[in-house]
C-alpha cells in the first residue's frame, strides 16, 4: 500500500513537472514573438497590401456560353470527330459567317470541347468578353462543324441537344480570396522568420539560460536602470539632503 502511494506521488510530481515545462515553453515562444512583433506586423501588412493591389487591377470580364451535342460515332472515330470542332477548316468558316476580326488560332483559344463523363454527349464552350457574341460563336461553330463533319468524314449522326444562350454572369468575377491567402502567408512567414532570427541569436536572453550554462542557481537579478530614472532618484536624494540640512541649521 505504501509503495503504491509512493508511486502515485512520483507520477503526480512527474506530471506537474511536465506541465511546468510546457508552460515555460509557451511563455518562451510568446516572448520570442513579442520581442520582434514589429517584423510580424510589417511583413503581414506588406503581403496583404501587395495582394490588394494585385486584386484591384482592372480586368476585362469574360463570359462563357456552352452548347451540347451528341456524336454517334465509333470509338475509333470519336477522337477525330471531336477534334474537328477546333480545326481551321471549321474556324475559318465561323470567322467568315460572323465577320470576326480574329485569326483561326485566336478563335481556337476561345473554344473548348469536353465529353460528359465519357459518354457520347459533347459540350462545346466558348469564352468571350461579349456574352452575346460568345453564344453566337458557340452556336455557329456547332452548326458549321456538323456540315464539315458530314462533308469530310461522312458523319451525319451529330445531333444538337441544347443551343448556347447569353450568360450575363462573368466567369472571372473578382474575389478577395487572394488577399486572405496573402495575409495568412505573410503571418506564417514572418513568425517563421522571427524564430529563425531568435535561433541565430547567441546572446543570453533569460536567467534559465544562465543557470544551464553555469550550472548554478540564480538567487535574484538586477533590473536595468534607465538613465533618466537614475537622474530623477539622484535629484530627489539631493533635495532630501538639502531639506534635512535646513531643518538642522534652523
How would you describe this structure to a colleague?
By secondary structure, the chain is of the alpha+beta class. The chain has a domain at 63-162: EIF_2_alpha (Alpha-Beta Plaits). It is built from nine helices and four strands, in the order H-H-E-H-H-H-E-E-H-E-H-H-H. The protein has helices at residues 2-35, 37-55, 75-83, 88-98, 104-108, 131-153, 177-200, 207-214, 227-249; strands spanning 63-71, 111-115, 121-128, 158-162. A four-stranded antiparallel β-sheet has the order 2-3-1-4. Strand 2 (111-115) and strand 3 (121-128) form a beta hairpin. The radius of gyration is 39 Å and the shape is elongated. The model has no long low-confidence stretch (mean pLDDT 78).
**Sheet/helix structural class:** alpha+beta
Strand content: 5-15%
CATH class of the domain at 63-162: Alpha Beta
Give the uncertain stretches in residue-range form. none
Number of strands: 4
CATH architecture label name of the domain at 63-162: 2-Layer Sandwich
Major beta sheet, strand line-up = 2-3-1-4
CATH superfamily of the domain at 63-162: EIF_2_alpha
**CATH fold name of the domain at 63-162, please?**
Alpha-Beta Plaits
Global Rg: 39 Å
Amino acid at each position: 500500500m505504501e509503495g503504491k502511494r509512493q508511486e502515485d506521488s512520483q507520477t503526480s510530481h512527474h506530471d506537474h513537472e511536465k506541465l511546468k515545462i510546457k508552460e515555460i515553453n509557451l511563455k518562451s515562444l510568446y516572448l520570442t514573438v513579442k520581442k520582434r512583433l514589429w517584423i510580424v506586423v510589417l511583413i503581414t501588412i506588406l503581403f496583404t497590401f501587395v495582394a490588394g493591389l494585385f486584386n484591384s487591377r482592372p480586368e476585362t470580364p469574360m463570359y462563357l456560353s456552352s452548347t451540347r451535342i451528341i456524336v454517334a460515332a465509333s470509338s475509333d472515330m470519336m477522337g477525330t470527330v471531336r477534334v474537328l470542332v477546333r480545326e481551321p477548316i471549321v474556324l475559318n468558316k465561323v470567322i467568315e459567317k460572323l465577320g470576326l476580326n480574329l485569326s483561326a488560332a485566336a478563335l481556337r483559344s476561345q473554344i473548348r470541347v469536353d465529353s460528359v463523363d465519357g459518354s457520347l454527349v459533347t459540350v462545346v464552350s466558348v469564352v468571350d468578353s461579349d456574352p452575346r457574341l460568345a453564344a453566337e460563336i458557340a452556336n455557329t461553330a456547332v452548326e458549321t462543324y456538323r456540315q464539315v463533319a458530314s462533308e469530310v468524314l461522312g458523319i451525319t449522326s451529330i445531333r444538337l441537344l441544347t443551343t448556347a444562350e447569353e450568360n450575363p454572369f462573368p466567369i472571372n468575377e473578382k474575389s478577395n480570396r487572394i488577399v486572405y491567402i496573402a495575409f495568412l502567408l505573410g503571418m506564417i512567414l514572418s513568425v517563421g522568420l522571427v524564430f529563425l532570427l531568435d535561433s541565430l541569436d547567441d546572446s543570453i536572453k533569460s536567467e534559465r539560460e544562465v543557470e544551464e550554462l553555469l550550472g548554478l542557481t540564480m538567487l535574484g537579478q538586477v533590473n536595468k536602470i534607465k538613465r533618466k530614472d537614475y537622474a530623477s532618484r539622484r535629484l530627489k536624494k539631493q533635495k532630501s539632503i538639502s531639506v534635512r540640512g535646513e531643518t538642522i541649521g534652523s
